[in-house]
Amino acid sequence: MSRSKNMIKLEAINRRPRKIFSEEKFNGKIPVITDYYAENTFDFRKSDMISDEVKEELIEATKATSKTRIPNEHADQVAKAVVAWASKRGATHFCHWFQPLTGTTAEKHDSFLSFSKDEPILKLSGSQLMQGEPDASSFPNGGSRSTFEARGYTSWDLTSPLFLREGENGKTLCIPTAFVSYNGDALDVKTPLLRSITALSNAATKFLQLIGDKDVKSVVSNCGCEQEYFLVDKAFYYARPDLVMSNRTLLGSLTTKNQQLSDHYFGTIPERVLAFMQELDYKLHRLGIPSKTRHNEVAPGQFEIAPIFEEANVAVDHNQLLMAVIKKVAQKHDFVAILHEKPFAGVNGSGKHLNWSMATDTGDNLLEPGNEPHKNHRFLAMVSIVVDAVFKHSKALRMAIAGHGNDHRLGANEAPPSIISVFLGDTLTKIYDALESGSEFKPIDDQWLDMGAGQLADLLRDNTDRNRTSPFAFTGNKFEFRAVGSSQNAGFPLSILNAAMTDALISATAELEKSLNSGKGIEDALLDLIRTNYKRSKNVVFGGDGYSSEWLEEAAQRGLPNLRTTAEALTVLKDEKATAFLTETKTYRPVELLTRYNVAVEGYNMSREIEFSTLSRMVRQYVLPSAVHYKKGLLEVIKTQSELEMECVVEKDILTKVDTLLNNVYKALNNMEASYNDSLQKDEEEKSLLFATKVLPLSEELSNKSNQLEEFIPDELWDLPTFLEMLFVR
Ligand code: ADP
Ligand code: MG
User: Fold this and answer.
1) How many CB atoms lie within 10 A of CB 554?
2) Do residues 242 and 250 touch, judged by C-beta distance below 8 A?
3) Does 212 share its domain with 293?
4) Segment (H or E) for 302
5) Which listed residue, 29, 50, 383, 520, has the most CB atoms within 10 A of its CB?
6) Are residue 415 and residue 495 in the same domain, yes or no?
7) Please, what's the largest Cα pairwise distance for the chain?
8) pLDDT tens-digit profile of 425-438?
């Protein structure tokens, strides 16, 4: 055997919680959050090196609808303040930080070093702050540019704060940027998200103005991402090629006790994990990321963190950063953080519940039920427009959460199904039903009035708590898009959601205008709108058990699409009808949709190829040898006993069983490999469909056979860390 598994286990068991607030640096005192909150971000408002005039210009430029351009000399002034601030805190380099279509973030560091009359100086110019030109040819572009046009530009996103990234030996100033091609085509996640934010603001403002909210000048979308993740001890992680290669276990027998007793969810956080979470929160708070809640999740080894919600673009940047910080801090605690949607078959997977709402610049949350009749109408209209948006664009929303990892989660343990539906809760559904059926709807019915606003929100929350199976649920004063995968960049689904809402708002505004022009009063027109919307789209409203097989049938009868796999869901990107709203709202250009399709299909295929070949290798290098090793021992015993004329019934029986299990594994391996090799001949689209429907099921068959063998083989002969070790040793 290679490095003994017992040594690995001992290493993991003997670890101690890591302390971060040392006696020398902190006098043994734990610092107060408000003393260090956001100390690693640059706030131009607080800088005394930037004039008031420039500050006002910057504030103006951060508005979604702004057309303000910062003149060069003003940018130089800001850059000077930035470099002074950053270098004082130990930063030696800066980088444009952006989100290409790789799913993660990218950065290229430049030092502040420059020369003035042969003397070294620190310098960041205004143009270096505002614009970068990384070679774009090595980022996924899905064929949208020929290689000779490799030029790509990064452009400073003024709405997202500059921050310092800390390394062991220095700091780097990170400038959040958008990443576009020579033609201005978005090569990243941020650009379309920003466009969708602007489009939504315009459409919502127009709608609100029409219904009498004349003070509203803009509307922001807000977002809070609940982030789930697993922690596995580093020693086990590096002994599992599948975790290292593909971030999920490709085989492994489920432990006898896993999550049946529900004893992990909200349980006491293990000491070593708590130490990790404390350092994580400390780091996040210094970066101005408003981390708020932390707890154990349902599966053993699974945890969750959620921040206070923020404006959508900043929330997405912060979530990207948070994922990176989780990984980094976990390493310091000898854990590896796994953000994959389904690292362990048989227990819960991880999601990123994307909480979403819209708020006016006058401070109103448009999804807050409120207690004034007029506001209730507005609220009811808004929610009915959201329902309409999801109904009309459910295919695109399904596409937006597609990814090879999420395929293992959607429809599995405690994850929403791949059918997109909306959960409204009892109270709201009843109100809409009454409205629709024409029974006179009193906005203030007993239930509604008795509760008062605050309590009403609570009541709705209670209702929603009972339904964890919905992919898109109303939860009090926001919607929660739960089908989003834990490792995904939330910016993509958010851009699709914002665009869907924009499209539905534009239609609603047109309908409303028509009613008003025909002489209807605003209240009547609004009620009409709610009714028509609900009538048209209520098929997407579902309050039952999303995990049940009955729902699959019912959804089919209702005509709701069910795109089961990523391969199927991605074809939506090529469906002009299904994506028309994305181009009409100017969130995506047609070429960008094609780009995303190509990049996603290729990404899907590459991920699966890595998984299939890793699984093959693991079976050959670990699983088969373990069984052969066991057989060898048994054969020796049988041989010796036979020589001594002893019976060996049991040994022979075990040997036969091992042999059968081994044969099963070998057969399954050959089947999978044959199917895999066949698929490789196809073009990318066909390959993805074959991978999803043929090779993947065969790979799961192979895992099952291997798991049966694992359960039969002495633990000391099983080289790979088991689920028991990975999920329970902390
Ligand atoms: P729950 O546990 O019911 O999902 P929480 O209050 O824990 O609700 O909220 C979960 C996430 O939703 C947090 O990130 C929170 O900040 C965010 N959130 C709360 N209100 C809103 C809102 N109006 N818009 C967007 N996100 C919100
Ligand atoms: Mg929640």
Assistant:
1) 16
2) yes
3) no
4) strand 302-307
5) 383
6) yes
7) 105
8) 888 888 888 888 87
Secondary element (H or E) of residue 260: none
Does the pLDDT at position 223 exceed 80? yes
| Alpha-carbon dihedral angle through residues 558, 561, 562, 563, given to the nearest 10 degrees | 180
- Based on the domain organization, do 697 and 647 belong to the same domain? yes
User: Rounded to the nearest whole angstrom, what is the distance from the C-alpha of residue 224 to the centroid of ligand 2?
Assistant: 9
Q: 319 CB under 6 A from ligand 1?
A: no
Q: Tell me how long the chain is.
A: 730
Model pLDDT, residue 260: 78
Nearest CA to ligand 1 atom 13: 224
Instruction: Single out the residue in 166, 188, 210 at which a domain terminates.
Output: 188
Do residues 81 and 22 share a domain? no
Whether 155 lines ligand 1, by a CB cut-off of 6 Å, is: no
Residue to mutate, 219, 220, 353, 355, ligand 1, most ligand atoms under 8 Å from C-beta? 355
Instruction: Provide the domain count of the chain.
Output: 4
Distance from C-alpha of 65 to C-alpha of 61, rounded to nearest angstrom? 9
**Residues 681, 630 share a domain:** yes
Same domain, 232 and 332: yes
Please report, as a single letter, which amino acid is at residue 514: K
State percent of the chain over pLDDT 90: 76
- Phi and psi at residue 380, in whole multiples of 5°? -60, -40
CB 163 within 8 A of CB 288: yes
Q: Is residue 472 part of a domain?
A: no
Give strand pairing partners of 219: 360
Of all helices (H) and strands (E), which one includes residue 367? none
Q: Is residue 509 part of a domain?
A: yes
Element of type H or E holding 37: none
Cβ of 223 less than 6 Å from ligand 1 = yes
Predicted confidence band of residue 236 (pLDDT cuts 50, 70, 90): very high
φ, ψ of residue 587 in degrees (nearest 5): -80, -40
Are both 527 and 665 inside the same structural domain?
Answer: no
Shortest-distance atom of ligand 1 to CA 355: 26
Residue-averaged pLDDT of the chain: 91
Specify the 3-state DSSP secondary structure of 103. coil
CA of 223 relative to ligand 2 center, distance in Å: 12
Choice among 395-404, 505-514, 543-552 with the minimum mean pLDDT: 543-552
Dihedral sign for Cα 304, 310, 315, 317, please. negative
Instruction: Tell me the pTM.
Output: 0.94
Q: What is the CATH number of the domain that holds 61?
A: 3.10.20.70
Q: How far is the CA of 294 from the centre of ligand 1 (A)?
A: 13
Using the 3D structure, point to which of 163, 188, 213 is the last residue of a domain: 188
> CATH no. for residue 615?
1.20.120.1560
- Partnered with residue 307 across adjacent β-strands are 291
Question: Is 658 part of any domain?
Answer: yes
Four-CA torsion 373, 379, 381, 384, nearest 10 degrees: -130
Picking from 679, 707, 680, 706, the residue whose alpha carbon sits closest to that of residue 693 is 679
* Exposure string over 292-305, b if 16+ CB within 10 A, otherwise e: eebebbbbbbbbbb
Half-sphere exposure at residue 295, Cβ-oriented, CA atoms within 13 angstroms: 12
Containing structural domain, residue 243? 1-29+227-248+259-350
Cβ 538 vs Cβ 388: under 8 Å? no
Does residue 208 sit in the same domain as residue 302? no
CA of residue 612 to ligand 1 center, whole Å? 38
Residue type for position 268: T
**Domain of residue 311, CATH code:** 3.30.590.10
224 ligand 1 Cβ < 6 A = yes
For 626-644, how does the pLDDT look when each residue is reduced to its tens digit (9 = 90+)? Answer: 999 999 999 999 999 999 9
Do residues 372 and 452 make contact, with C-beta atoms less than 8 angstroms apart? no
Q: Which ligand is nearest to the CA of 224?
A: 1
CA gap 320, 325 in Å, rounded: 9
Is 428 part of any domain?
no
Residue 226 CA to ligand 2 centre (angstroms) = 7
